[in-house]
Amino acid sequence: MSTFWSLWIGIITLVTIIGVSWVLVSNRRVSVKEKLKDDEVPTTGHVYDGIEEYDNPLPGWWFNMFVISVVFAIVYLVLYPGMGNFPGVLGWTSHGQWQAQEKKAEDRFDVVYSTFAGLSIEELAVNPEAFKIGRRLFGNNCAVCHGSDGRGSYGFPNLTDDDWLYGGSPEAIQHSISHGRKGMMPAWSGVIGEDGVNQVSEYLFKLGARDHDASLAEDGAKVFATFCAACHGADGSGNQALGAPNLRDDIWLYGRSPLLIKTTIRSGRQGLMPSQNQQLQASKIRLLSAYVYSQAHQ
Ligand code: HEC
Ligand code: HEC
User: Fold this and answer.
1) What's the whole-number mean pLDDT along residues 119-135?
2) Which of 250, 2, 294, 298 lies closest to 132 in space, CA to CA?
3) C-alpha 202, offset from chain centre
4) Best of 197, 212, 231 to mutate for ligand 2, by most ligand atoms within 8 A of CB?
5) pLDDT by residue (tens digit) across 206-224?
6) Mutational test site, ligand 1, from 146, 162, 185, max ligand atoms within 8 Å of CB
7) Ramachandran quadrant class, 150 (left: phi over 0; alpha: psi -120 to 50; beta: rest)
8) What separation in Å is there between the alpha carbon of 139 and the centre of ligand 2?
9) Residue 35: band (very low, low, confident or very high) from pLDDT cuts 50, 70, 90
10) How far apart are CA 132 and CA 164, in angstroms?
C-alpha cells in the first residue's frame, strides 16, 4: 500500500474513533432529574400525536459497552494490522498464521508418512492404512475434476478403468499427478476442411466397428494416415507418450456421439491436468498414486 493510502486509512480510522468517543461523551447526561421536580420526567421536547419522547440518560451498562468497544478497537489496532501499513506490535499476518498451521500439520503428518516411506507404490496400493489416507487426499484434491469415485466425466478421464492416456504404471501415474499433463489435440478444420472431417470421422467409426459410410471411410483412411497417425498411431490405438487416446476402443474422453467426435476433430482439445508438486508434498503424491493405482487394478 502506498504511503498516501496508508495515511488515508490511518487518519480516517483515528478520526472516526475520536469522533464517536466525542459523540458518546458529549451527549452523556448522568442525571438531569435533580433539576426537575420529583414527578416530572425529562423529555426531548418532541411530541407526536400527544405522545412525548422521554429523554432518559443511557443506562450505565449500555454506556460502558460503548466505552469497552472503543477501548477494544484501540487495543486491537495497536496489536494487529489495521492502521494502513502499521503491522501491529504483535507482527501477526494471516499468511504467517497459515504457514505456522501448515508447518504444524506437516510435522504431524510426517510421522505418519514416514512409516510409508520404505514401501513401493504397489505395496502402498494394498496397504489399508495408506488406502484410507489416499482416499481422503483424493476427495480433497482430485474429486472436483475426476469425481469422488474417480470415474471422471466429460473431459476428465476415468481413473478406475484400464484405459490410460499417459500410462497406468506406478511411475506414469505418479508423473501425471506430480508434473501434470497437457493434451494437445490440434484443430483440423482449417487443414482438412469439412469434407476431411466427415471422411476421417467415418473412418474412426469403422475402426470402432460402428455404422459407417464405407466410401467416406476409405477416403478417411488416407486423411488419417496423413494427419492423425503421427500421434494416434498408424492403427489408431493411440500413443501414451503424447497422451493421444486410443481411437479404436469405445472409451471417449469428449463423448462418443458423431457430433462430439466431429467437434473434437474440427476445433481440437486441450485437456489440462494441473501439476500437484507445488501444492502437495512428495509423500502425499505417492499415497495418491497408490490410491489411483489400486482403484484401477482391483
Ligand atoms: C482441474 C481439474 C483436475 C484436477 C483437480 C485433477 N485432475 Fe487429473 N486430470 C485432469 C484432466 C483434464 C486430465 C486429462 C489431461 C488430458 O486430457 O491430457 C487428467 C489426467 C490425470 C491422470 C492421467 C490419466 C491417464 O489416463 O493417463 C491422472 C493419473 C490424474 N489426472 C490423477 C489426478 C489426481 C490423483 C488428482 C488429485 C491430486 C488430479 N488428477 C486432479 C484434470 C484434473
Ligand atoms: C499432435 C498430435 C495429434 C494429432 C496430429 C492428432 N491428434 Fe487427436 N488427439 C491428440 C491428443 C493429445 C488428444 C487428447 C486431447 C486431450 O487429452 O485433451 C486427442 C484427442 C482426439 C480425439 C478425442 C478422443 C476422445 O477420447 O474423446 C479424437 C476423436 C481425435 N483426437 C481425432 C484425431 C484425428 C481424426 C486426427 C487427424 C485429423 C487427430 N486426432 C490428430 C493428439 C493428436
Assistant:
1) 94
2) 294
3) 40
4) 231
5) 999 999 999 999 999 999 9
6) 146
7) left
8) 29
9) low
10) 24
Whole-Å CA distances, 187 to 139, 221, 262 = 34, 18, 11
Ligand 1 centroid–CA 67 distance in Å is 56
What pLDDT was estimated at residue 31?
56
Query: Is the CB of 183 inside a 6 Å radius of any atom of ligand 1?
Result: yes
Residues with Cβ within 8 Å of 273's Cβ and at least 6 positions away in sequence, in order, are 176, 177, 180, 181, 182
For cell 425529562, what's the residue?
42
Query: What is the residue whose three cell numbers read 501491529?
Result: 88
Angle at 139 between CA 138 and CA 141, to 5 degrees: 60
Spatial contact of 237 and 248, defined as CB atoms under 8 Å apart: yes
Cβ(216)–Cβ(206) under 8 Å?
Answer: no
Tell me the one-letter amino acid at 115.
Answer: T
Q: Are 219 and 199 in contact (CB under 8 A)?
A: yes
Query: Considering only CA atoms, which residue is closest to atom 5 of ligand 2?
Result: 228
Q: In whole angstroms, what is the distance from residue 108 CA to residue 113 CA?
A: 9
Ligand nearest to the CA of 246: 2
What integer best gives the mean pLDDT of the chain? Answer: 92
Contact 279, 180 (CB under 8 A): no
Among positive and negative, which fits the CA dihedral 228, 234, 240, 242?
A: negative
Q: Which amino acid is at 101?
A: Q
Number of residues written out for the chain: 298
Cell of 46: 418532541
